[in-house]
Amino acid sequence: MNPMGGFTAQFAAAFLITVSLGLVSGSLGTVMGLLLAMSKSSPASRFKAVVTAYTTVVRGVPELLIILLIYFGGTIFASKVAGRYVEVNAFTAGVIALTVVFGGYATEVFRGAIAAVPAGQTEAAKSLGLNAWQRWAFVIGPQMLRLALPAYGNLWISLFKDTALVSIVGLTDIMRVAFVGAGSLRAPLTFYLAASSLYLSLTTITLLSIRLAERRYPALGR
Amino acid sequence: MNLSLMFDAMIVLPSGIVLTLTLTVLSLTAGFLLAVPLAFARAFGRPSLSLGVLAYTYVIRGTPMLVQLFLLYYGLGQIEAVRASVFWLVLRDPFWCALLAFSLNCAAHTTEILCRGLLSVPKGVVEAAAALGLKRLQIARLVTFPIAFRISLPAYGNEVVGMIKGSSLASTVTLLEITGMARQLVSSTFAPYEIFIVAGAIYLALTTLAVKATQFLERRLSIDGHPTRRRKVRFRPGLPRHRTTTPVP
Fold first, then answer.
1. Sequence-separated (6 or more) residues with CB below 8 Å from residue A71
2. Half-sphere exposure of residue B166: CA atoms within 13 angstroms, side-chain side
3. ABC transmembrane type-1 domain: from which residue to which, for each copy (chain B) (predicted)?
4. Count of domains forming chain B
5. Residue B228 forms part of a structural domain
6. For residues A60 and A53, what is the distance between their CA atoms, to the nearest angstrom?
7. Which CATH superfamily groups domain A7-216?
8. Which positions 104-133 of B are in contact with A (Cβ < 8 Å)?
9. Residue of chain A whose Cα is closest to the Cα of B173
10. For chain A, give me the number of helices (H) and strands (E)?
11. Terminal CA-CA length for chain B
């Protein structure tokens, strides 16, 4: 007998939701982190203080609080804009919240990696006549990404773990299905163990892909 | 933005700080005490022992803390033996449940942090200690651990911050720490911006304080480069007590 009744199919659907939530917010967060790190690293940056404030706040406040703020605050904001009661979709709120969190951490990781690329590289690229975009794309970028890879990989692992928090605002991800199933079949142990094994497989896959990427793209010149 | 609501929140929410800090400090302490032997086992133990510890840290670090918390809070009651035992009196209470989950989680993270520190202690130092005739326990206590602790202090600071932030999960098992109070307040006033922003500011203050404290400890314990200036203890010969009398002209 299947101890989880009809919940196996729900778990499969929830797994996809968790994965897509992670992938979407991770990708958006990466883009955000790259842009902010570049703007923070350029010597004549006007937003340096703003970016620093952003990363400090995001890294010092619980993820759960950010998710709650964006979900409930977003509902009020959307209702005000639309002029009637609009509830923000939990998935959208989750994507926004996790992107904000991931972007904050990624900014710091990339900024550290950019600082670790020797200054001589930029100077050499300048003396070769490369413009700013070419310098980022061909000289600093590739070296910086390799340096950032281990820390960046850890961010993905914590991101997949943080997706579980979005279940608190009602997204039917793995955690939510486990919660509902545990309540309705009165078998919390089975359901939460199943959920943890799903999360564990997710983080294991992430870890293995990072290890593979690290082996494929080791840091240059060390 | 409603400023008077924010002001109300500023008065109400700090009463949750005590619970947040209690949970954080207790789980950090329990986690650290568990982590020290586990880190030694993981770093220098027999392969089977080391793998066992790795399995523990891997599973704990690979699953969300929320799942672990729910597993303990809702799941343990399902086992008849637990319900019958004396532990049930403790585990029935959400506070102890949360504390147990946080401590186990913290122990896993701290173990890995300390293990990395232990493995990066220079071999020569340990050999020198052995050559001086120190026993294994003495080497671990006097040489390896202090050096490893200094190496892992920055990473441990991150863990402290992570624990302060992680304690917000206690609100999901009905505990009224800062996040729990904020959620309760939001459900009665429905002013999420004002109240969650105040709660976030309190957390930010706590984490900033933790970061500063870690940095202070790092500077205090650092041994490379600038040795800490100690008060000079040296023998001062007593000055002759007798007054030199100048001859009156």
1. A88, A90, A93, A94, A97, A169
2. 28
3. 17-215
4. 1
5. no
6. 11
7. MetI-like (1.10.3720.10)
8. none
9. A168
10. 9, 0
11. 87
B229: in domain: no
pLDDT band, very low/low/confident/very high, at A1 (cuts 50, 70, 90): very low
Tens digits of per-residue pLDDT, B89-104?
778 889 999 999 999 9
How many H helices and E strands in chain B?
Answer: 12, 0
Give the residue from chain A lying closest to B74, CA to CA. Answer: A188
Q: Specify whether the CB–CB gap between A110 and A32 falls below 8 A.
A: no
Kindly give, in sequence order, each residue whose CB lies less than 8 Å from that of residue B67, ignoring residues fewer than 6 positions away.
A164, A175, A178, A192, A195, A196, A199
Q: Give the domain range for residue B115.
A: 3-221
Rounded to whole angstroms, how far apart are CA atoms A154 and A148?
10
CB B100 within 8 A of CB B203: no
Q: What is the ipTM of this complex?
A: 0.90
Task: Please tell me the distance in Å from B61's CA to the nearest CA on chain A.
Answer: 9
Is B244 inside any structural domain?
Answer: no
Give domain limits for chain A: 7-216
pLDDT tens sequence across B204-228: 999 999 999 999 999 888 876 555 5
- B107 in a domain, yes or no? yes
| Chain A contact for B209 (CB, 8 A cutoff) | no
Distances (CA, A) of A183 to A145, A206, B38, B154: 45, 30, 35, 41
- B134 backbone dihedrals φ, ψ, rounded to 5°: -75, 145
